[in-house]
Design goal:
The chain is α+β, with helices and mostly antiparallel strands. It has a single domain, classed as Clavaminate synthase-like (Double-stranded beta-helix), CATH 3.60.130.10. It is built from 8 helices and 15 strands. The strands form 4 sheets. Strands 1-2-3-13-5-15-4 form a 7-stranded mixed β-sheet, sandwiched between helices. Strands 12-6-14 form a 3-stranded antiparallel β-sheet. A 3-stranded antiparallel β-sheet has the order 8-7-11. A hairpin with a 6-residue loop joins strand 9 and strand 10. The chain is globular and about 50 Å long. The structure holds N-oxalylglycine (OGA) and manganese (II) ion (MN). The site of manganese (II) ion has 4 residues, from loops.
Length: 287
């Protein structure tokens, strides 16, 4: 049995008394998977792991995504979120790396711009700033459950077009390269995902959500904006204050998340992410 300590009234739990780098028996791993499904965000404190150990633990949950072109770590299994150059010096605010990190400050679900979006992401805190740089999460199952009837009706059976070029253009129109456009063309996603009778439905949205199929662009965007304004109420947010060597696993189909600012011109932040691939398009699990 593993011990899970609730971190928020609606979701998120800390798993205690477990070293993820040690061998984990199948029975214990099943408990972790069940906790992941139920709580959507799992925090493991004090896990000083290497990249290989992070990959090994992540792979227990499924095959990993390969990092896309244009992102630090491209072609491999790691995404490196850092505001430092190879020599460890802080890079200027105009650096592509920093702009890409800034895009993480928009609420999003990882890889929602892929035809089969990520199932889960695992983020390891290697170096954290003295203040700021928290990561915030919203339970989109709690959000769906709390939607007023009018909005529940409005989202029913909707298909949303998610587009990487659209979300990146909010940060800087020049940020997306032709190679990225070619690698990640717009895709169709379910607006509502069914997680089964025990867990209910979630709203699937975030920064990459650009348009709603069958609606005029401005109307669709107005509905997306209204839903995001509802979803981002304080009561749905778990804000994680990182400690060195924290490791967090989250369910990209049940939560959205965002980075928060820190003094990136003077302080250093280094995070390493692995991403567990999804096994089917969201439309297969559409509510
Ligand atoms: C990510 C992400 C947020 C952060 O790794 O997918 O959005 O706080 N990170 O670094
Ligand atoms: Mn992210």
């Amino acid at each position: 049995m593993i011990a899970a300590k609730r971190l928020h009234p609606l979701f998120a739990a800390e798993i205690t008394d477990l070293a993820v780098s040690a061998p984990i028996p199948d029975a214990v791993f099943s408990d972790i998977e069940a906790a992941f499904r139920r709580h959507s965000v799992l925090v493991f404190r004090d896990q000083p792991i290497t990249d290989d150990q992070q990959i090994a633990f992540s792979e227990r949950f499924g095959a990993l995504e390969t990092t896309k072109v244009g992102t630090a770590g491209a072609g491999g299994k790691l995404i490196v979120l850092s505001n430092m150059d190879e020599g460890g010096a802080v890079v200027p605010a105009s650096d592509r790396q920093v702009l890409n990190n800034r895009a993480n400050r928009l609420w999003h679900a990882d890889s929602s711009f892929k035809a089969v979006p990520a199932k889960a992401s695992m983020l390891s805190a290697r170096l954290i700033p003295s203040k700021g740089g928290d990561t915030e999460y919203i339970s989109m199952r709690a959000v769906y459950a709390a939607l007023p009837g009018r909005l529940k009706q409005a989202v029913e059976n909707k298909v949303v077009i998610h587009d990487y070029a659209y979300s990146r253009s909010k940060i800087d129109p020049a940020l997306v390269t032709d190679a990225e456009r070619a690698a990640v063309p717009p895709v169709r996603q379910a607006m509502v995902i069914d997680h089964g009778a025990d867990l209910g439905r979630s709203l699937y949205l975030g920064a990459h959500a650009a348009r709603i199929e069958g609606m005029a662009e401005d109307e669709g965007r107005a509905l997306i904006d209204e839903l995001m304004a509802f979803a981002t109420q304080e009561r749905f947010v778990y804000a994680h204050k990182w400690q060195p060597h924290d490791l967090i696993l989250w369910d990209n189909r049940a939560v959205i998340h965002r980075a928060t600012p820190f003094e990136s011109a003077t302080e250093k932040r280094l995070m390493v992410r692995t991403t567990i691939a999804g096994d089917a398009p969201t439309l297969v699990a559409a509510a």
